[in-house]
């Protein structure tokens, strides 16, 4: 009997505390929405953003509104999520809206608009040109060449002209010769299905939205040495740019010579872009060597056994190579030293501009 009375007393105290909590605001110092003047807070109940749809109570912060409907009105998470979406829409309507010219979707910041253009519509925000439809020639090309060397030269020139890069997907022997199937480097694997919700998530947009690229090249290397080919060089579903192409052997040799002359990767990158960049061409059509990165330069130095920034551990050897290969030097006088550390050498340089 005593236990039963104790339970009744405890339940009565809990119910009284609950009623008192519901009658009293959670934060007594929270000012009304109409009196809040901070530009970072809700100052109006128009659109229902800071106002409870059940009891018309105003809140200074939206997070307090969500907590209020959960605890007081016992809303489930589904209704809270819908309230959050409505709150975001009311906020976007009150701010400056930037429409996307391609799909008409509205954005509140310029950065989000640029991100959508680059990742969804594949459009460069600076030049306004789509990088997907640069080469929309989807005609089938067929032909025959005398030997494999001629075919390699033709394929390399065609890849540079169309900004495509083929990789071997399969190769097998046939009674007539070896059959080789080339596909675009962005078409390997199963791809990814288009998901609108996933595409709208910032920083989570897939680089390839199509399951396959239309570029291909079928090759039959006959036993007599001749080569038959047929293929298509039109790309779809991914960004088409010279930056995605591999570096040619000639461009790699240019980087190697600059490394041998004693230049650092950062200086090499600056000089290449200064001397070879064409301001009349778009970014995606610039020469491949202009879009080289520091990581690629360091990889070339490691692959060729070169120390970054110099050709030899002896700095004087690097200096001599620089004097021989530099195009900015008109004439120079260089006197070596017999000191083992290299101290005491004399060097006088006369540049083409007349500076000494």
From TrEMBL:
Q: Does the keyword Protein transport apply?
A: no
Keywords, ordered alphabetically = Metal-binding, Zinc, Zinc-finger
GO MF, one term, reads: zinc ion binding
Stored SUPFAM superfamilies: beta-beta-alpha zinc fingers
Mind telling me which Gene3D superfamilies this protein's record contains? Classic Zinc Finger
Q: What are the residue boundaries of the C2H2-type domain, all occurrences included?
A: 50-78, 98-126
This one is known as C2H2-type domain-containing protein
Originating organism: Trichostrongylus colubriformis (Black scour worm)
């Amino acid at each position: 009997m005593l236990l039963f009375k104790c339970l009744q007393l405890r339940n009565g105290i809990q119910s009284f505390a609950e009623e008192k909590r519901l009658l009293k605001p959670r934060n007594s110092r929270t000012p009304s929405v109409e009196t809040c003047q901070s530009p970072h807070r809700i100052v109006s109940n128009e659109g229902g953003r800071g106002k409870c749809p059940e009891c018309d109570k105003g809140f200074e912060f939206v997070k307090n509104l969500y907590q209020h409907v959960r605890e007081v009105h016992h809303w489930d998470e589904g209704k809270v999520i819908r309230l959050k979406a409505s709150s975001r829409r009311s906020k976007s309507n009150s701010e400056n809206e930037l429409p996307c010219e391609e799909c008409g979707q509205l954005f509140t910041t310029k950065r989000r608009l640029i991100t959508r253009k680059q990742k969804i519509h594949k459009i460069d925000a600076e030049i306004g040109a789509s990088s997907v439809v640069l080469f929309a020639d989807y005609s089938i090309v067929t032909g025959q060449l005398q030997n494999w060397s001629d075919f390699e030269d033709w394929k390399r020139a065609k890849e540079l002209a169309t900004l495509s890069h083929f990789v071997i997907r399969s190769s097998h022997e046939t009674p007539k010769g070896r059959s080789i199937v080339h596909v675009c480097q962005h078409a390997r694997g199963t791809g990814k299905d288009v998901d609108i919700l996933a595409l709208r998530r910032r920083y989570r947009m897939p680089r390839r939205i199509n399951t396959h690229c239309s570029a291909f090249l079928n090759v039959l290397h006959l036993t007599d040495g001749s080569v038959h080919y047929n293929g298509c060089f039109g790309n779809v579903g991914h960004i088409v740019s010279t930056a995605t192409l591999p570096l040619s052997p000639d461009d790699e040799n240019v980087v190697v010579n600059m490394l041998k002359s004693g230049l650092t990767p950062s200086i090499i990158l600056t000089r290449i872009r200064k001397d070879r960049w064409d301001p009349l061409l778009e970014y995606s059509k610039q020469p491949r060597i202009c879009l080289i990165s520091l990581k690629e330069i360091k990889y070339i130095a490691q692959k060729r056994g070169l120390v970054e920034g110099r050709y030899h551990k002896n700095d004087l050897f690097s200096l001599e190579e620089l004097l021989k290969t530099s195009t900015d030097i008109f004439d120079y006088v260089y006197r070596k030293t017999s000191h083992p550390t290299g101290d005491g050498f004399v060097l006088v340089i006369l540049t083409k501009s007349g500076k000494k």
